[in-house]
Write a structure and sequence with these properties.
The structure is a homodimer of 238-residue chains. Chain A is mainly alpha-helical. The first copy, chain A, contains twelve helices and three strands, in the order H-H-E-H-H-E-E-H-H-H-H-H-H-H-H. The structure holds a DNA duplex (30 and 30 nucleotides).
DNA sequence: TTGGGAATACTTGTATGCAAGTATGTAGGT
DNA sequence: ACCTACATACTTGCATACAAGTATTCCCAA
């Protein structure tokens, strides 16, 4: 029997979750994905279905189903009769994720520029305002929550609700980087400025400019990649 | 015990498949996806894990895992304690699939236009030639195989191997339509002509023209949608 | 000391058993 | 005739047992 690794949080599902109809599989998937994205599970780390099941207070079945889904996300690699490993970050995986995210979100924001009403634009600006507030208050996690909310809204305004969740599922490797790159001072200010550029283009109904601004914004995170690779070389593939 | 529905093929996995390392889950996923795309499983049809497991000669476990994956593809709907159903075709799902496919493949073909070598272009043209041949020979299934191969090559030339499989997984609803729309005479000729337009743009290294031609090509299948909806109203959502 | 081999303890893949909930069909009462 | 209640047979979600394979470890022999 492997001892429970105490440097990891207890992930057990609450009774409230069960009552709310959420099933164990979804809960496990979310918990494991969060752990990987936040690098609580470090790239390269070996996982064990049995161990995870114990930790999460469920059986192997929902753990397995969650891991299979995470493999589709390229966040784990499952080797039969050998083990399951958190994937290391790779340039190819990052490039692919960036490609998918740019393709989907830029196409979405083009459609959004054609469709957004003044009320929609006001709502988007409200999200940016709240983003400024929580950042001023030093609540970094909530800043990122609002960041996701903004990008989701941009996607949803395209009329294609599939765009955001699909982009997110493909962006696992990128999000790991994002979490690690919260370092240099003006980073946040620049992000907010770029958000406003996209929203301005939406207000004026200019798809080309909206796409251009969003694409540049989405490429910002890549700028911190060399630094992260230097400070965490063990997270990356050879 | 429900009697085995004899109007469906025996899907049992061969020993060779097992020896080749393919696992039951992947086999079941492929078999079920093909059955749904080809409308051998009709939209709205109810499926039973137990029944499918028996038919496929495996246990419920790999069947369950395949069905969960098919739910991600929006090809089945799983209702706890009630049943699993093949989704009906919906305008929203088709629009979403079209959006994803256009976004990914058009972005890919733009990159391909920048990167394709003369040898790459020759190979693409070879695929179109073979497409003409198998169509002349009346081998419709192989025609579609080559169609997929061509689009896959276009995607792969972008350098982002993720583009094609992701586009395919998102295109389940579209592919069901494609299978049903093999009716009017000049359809195939038009498709081949449009393929050549895309390849020409690649040869000349013109991303804008390649994207434009591919987008128009991808929208072709939507033209047959009203006809299909008229001839198979029971396949569609209200 | 070193090398080889078997026992062991793990891994994932699959099969099966149990729990909880829903639709249906039937029997009995009104 | 019709409506209600209950038994039944199904469903999926989850837990667990077994199968097959691999890495490690430890013991024994040379």
């Amino acid at each position: 029997m492997v001892a429970v690794n105490t440097d990891m949080p207890d992930m057990r599902m609450s009774i409230a979750d069960r009552a709310a109809g959420r099933n164990a599989r979804g809960h496990v998937y979310t918990a494991l994905r969060d752990a990987i994205i936040s690098t609580a599970f470090t790239p390269g780390q070996r996982l064990s279905e049995t161990d995870l099941a114990e930790r999460l207070g469920v059986s192997r079945t929902p753990v397995r189903e969650a891991l299979v889904r995470l493999r589709d996300d390229r966040l784990v690699e499952i080797v039969p009769q050998l083990g399951t490993y958190v994937t290391r970050i790779s340039r190819q995986a990052i490039g692919d994720a960036q490609f998918v995210r740019e393709s989907l979100e830029c196409a979405a924001v083009r459609a959004a520029a054609e469709r957004a009403s003044p009320a929609d634009v006001l709502e988007l600006e409200g999200v940016v305002v709240r983003q400024r507030e929580v950042f001023a208050a030093g609540e970094v996690d909530r800043f990122y929550d609002f960041d996701d909310a903004l990008h989701r809204s941009l996607c949803d305004l395209s009329g294609h609700g599939i765009a955001w969740p699909l982009s997110q599922r493909a962006s696992g490797h990128l999000n790991r980087i994002r979490r690690l790159s919260l370092t240099y001072p003006n980073y946040i200010d620049e992000m907010i400025e770029e958000h406003l550029l996209v929203i301005d283009a939406l207000r004026r109904g200019e798809p080309d400019e909206a796409e251009r601004a969003l694409r540049e914004h989405l490429r910002m995170v890549l700028g911190s990649l060399p630094d992260i690779e230097r400070s965490h070389p063990e997270y990356f593939e050879s």
